């Protein structure tokens, strides 16, 4: 995905499994869209954690093909 595409889909849904492994589930254009996906996955009742976070322009350059960060820059989760 190019930089323009990355920045047009700045909202990530992140999943953390039972072993602490974190995965990017998908990228979305709006927070509401990402939250809807995270909520629907969370409602399935599995032990995984799902949350939404926004990537910034700096992260967009470094994370195009890497795993998403687990937390916001200030250490909090959305």
On the 0 to 100 scale, the average pLDDT is 76
SSE string, helix = H, strand = E? HEEHEH
Write down the Rg.
12 Å
3D shape = flat
3D structure, described in words:
The chain is an alpha+beta fold and 78 residues long. It is 31% helix and 24% strand. It contains three helices and three strands; from the N terminus they run H-E-E-H-E-H. The protein has helices at 3-8, 31-42, 57-62, and strands at residues 11-16, 22-28, 49-54. Strands 2-1-3 form a three-stranded antiparallel sheet, with helices on one face. The longest helix is centred in the middle third of the chain and has 12 residues, at 31-42. It is flat, with a radius of gyration of 12 Å. It starts with a helix and ends in a 16-residue tail after the last helix.
């Amino acid at each position: 995905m190019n930089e323009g595409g990355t920045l047009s889909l700045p909202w990530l849904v992140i999943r953390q499994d039972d072993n602490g492994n974190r995965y990017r589930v998908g990228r979305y254009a709006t927070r509401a869209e990402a939250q809807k996906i995270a909520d629907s996955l969370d409602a399935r009742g599995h032990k995984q954690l799902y949350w939404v976070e926004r990537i910034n322009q700096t992260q967009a350059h470094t994370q195009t093909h890497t795993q998403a960060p687990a937390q916001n820059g200030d250490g909090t989760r959305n």
